[in-house]
Amino acid sequence: MNRLVLLRHGESEWNKENRFTGWTDVDLSERGIREATEAGKTLKKEGFQFKIAYTSYLTRAIRTLWLTLEQMDLLWIPVYKSWRLNEKHYGTLQGLNKSEMAEKYGDAQVHIWRRSYDVPPPALPNDDPRHPRFDPRYKNLDPADIPATESLKETVARIVPYWQNEMAGNLKKYKEVLVAAHGNSLRGIVKYLKNISDEEIVGLNLPTGIPYVFEFDDDLNLQKDYFLGDPEVIRKLMEEVANQAKRK
Predict the structure, then answer these.
(1) Which residue numbers in the chain have pLDDT < 70?
(2) Rounded to the nearest 5 degrees, what angle is found at the Cα of 22, between the Cα atoms of 118 and 224?
(3) Distance between the two ends of the chain, CA-based, in angstroms?
């Protein structure tokens, strides 16, 4: 059996403030630190022994991975970072309050920007200081790969090749792999692994800090998937995510 664990980073400071974050580098909140720590305790209790892990270039995911592995006494394992696991880029919405945007543009429009499959938010201008082309961590990327905004479709397009060419082979090799990343980058992986339609993926909300386990056979055919934790708590956390961008 091969087991992949997807872990959305713990609550960030901008999650706490209900802001669109995207590629902005924001750290974990106190709640997020607790969530990541608890995820590590849960995974250790369930007997996971990862030999390799993946994360994005963004602090909130990296710190979540550190805290999780620390609880598992696995800080020593190889960790691979990729921009392809970054959150969806939210363009000019980054830094703005989701509820305030819903008040201004309506719940339906903000829902489209947050959750639709192929409609990106308004793009950052090329000279905007928030544009990732000014960030040194992306200096070696092909300029064509650096987004000024993204839809989920575009996010999936950068993640699936990384899964196919890098992660899947290591899952076969090491049998257990941990990925600490972001709501939309992980939704992209889930969409691919479960063959979820473009329409249905709109309704998938991943809670922060809850391990999501995928079990595969030796040929990486998906056998089952499940969250680790109390189902009622997880349901409430999913509702919390879904309701972030509604008018107050």
Answers:
(1) 242-248
(2) 65
(3) 46
β-strands 53-55, 2-8 pairing: unpaired
Is the separation of the CB atoms in 70 and 218 below 8 Å?
A: no
Cβ-count burial of 154 within 10 angstroms (0-12 exposed, 13-18 middle, 19+ buried)? Answer: middle
pTM reported for the whole predicted model: 0.93
Q: Please tell me the predicted confidence (pLDDT) of residue 237.
A: 84
Contact 233, 184 (CB under 8 A): no
Token pair in block for residue 218: 């030796």
Residues 6+ away with beta carbon under 8 Å from 173: none
What is the three-class DSSP state of 8? strand
DSSP code of residue 12: B
Tokens for 203?
Answer: 């309704």
Catalytic residues: 9, 87
Q: Which phi and psi (to 5°) does residue 190 adopt?
A: -60, -45
Six token digits for residue 228: 């680790």
Distance separating alpha carbons of residues 166 and 164, to the nearest angstrom: 6
Least Cα distance to 220 among 179, 172, 149 occurs for 172
